[in-house]
Amino acid sequence: MHGLYSLFVILLLALMVISTEAGKGKKGQKGASECTEWQYGSCVPNIGDCGTGMREGTCNLQVKKLKCHVPCGWKKDFGADCKYRFGSWGECDSTTGTKNRVGTLKKALYNAECLATREVSKPCHSANGKAKTKVKGKKGKGKEN
Questions:
Q1: Which residue pairs, CB below 8 angstroms and at least 24 apart, start in 20-27?
Q2: pLDDT tens, 77-120?
Q3: How far is Cα 49 from Cα 33, in angstroms, rounded to an integer?
Q4: Residues near 93 by Cβ (< 8 Å), separated by ≥ 6?
Q5: Which of 31, 63, 75, 110 could be disulfide-bonded to 71 (CB atoms 3.0-4.6 Å)?
Q6: What is the 3-state composition of the chain as percent helix, strand, coil, each rounded to the nearest 5?
Q7: Ordered DSSP codes for 75-139
Q8: CA dihedral 87, 91, 96, 101 (to 10 degrees)
């Protein structure tokens, strides 16, 4: 019984050594990109001017492509790589009919050059002084009771 236990332990140790060596081989192949100073281009949408796209990264002679996303709407103006933390909306400016808020740079991704602050605005009131609301259709439209 003692001999069987010893054989089991030896086989287990041999299996651990073989799997460790196999793991090192995979790391050696994958570790070919020892670059630490990757330079990234801007995100280029696949279709149109926003949405899912690709960005190219280069380091020495190595090139890799990464999936990325360009936001649509008002965030498109400052790109996908500049992340801002926005404060509260300000008071409504009666001359322009808009209210503003300021965002401070939170993070610049992929070596992007971003402004330290950004200001955005949106309409605040309609002509009658009430806040704008979306009009929803009636439920059950076209049904007879």
A1: none
A2: 777 888 999 999 999 999 999 999 999 999 998 888 899 999 99
A3: 32
A4: 99, 100, 124
A5: 75
A6: 25, 30, 45
A7: GGGG-SSEEEEE------BTTTTEEEEEEEEEEE-TT----SEEEEEEE---TTSSPP-PPPPPT
A8: 0
Could you give the 3-state DSSP secondary structure of residue 27?
helix
Classify strands 51-59 and 98-108 as parallel, antiparallel or unpaired. Answer: unpaired
Cβ atoms 41, 56 nearer than 8 A: yes
> Could you tell me the residue ranges of all domains in the chain?
39-123
Q: Is the separation of the CB atoms in 118 and 101 below 8 Å?
A: no
Residue that has been written with the tokens 């949405």 in this structure: 51
Residue 3 pLDDT grade (very low, low, confident, very high; cuts 50, 70, 90): low
- What is the pLDDT averaged over residues 68-77? 83
* % of the chain surpassing 70 pLDDT: 63
